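Appendix B, record 7
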Amino acid sequence: NQHVVDDVSTLRVRLSDGTTANARILARDAENDLALIKITPPKPLTVMPLGTARDLEVGEGVVAVGNAYGY
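Structure tokens (predicted):
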């Protein structure tokens, strides 16, 4: 979120395995409270398995990843 990175000089990200990595802000949008950050992890990250819409249930949490409008 933009409000999280606003006025921050250093960003560190803690990964699920406990390791940390420095992050830098690539873009921010205050109107929509969005921020895009990038990390260079110390080792390759585990690839998240992709699911299908066939087995989703009502109310189940999802994450959609894409390239909407070429952004």
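Remarks on this record: Strands lie at 11-14, 20-29, 34-39. The longest strand covers residues 20-29.
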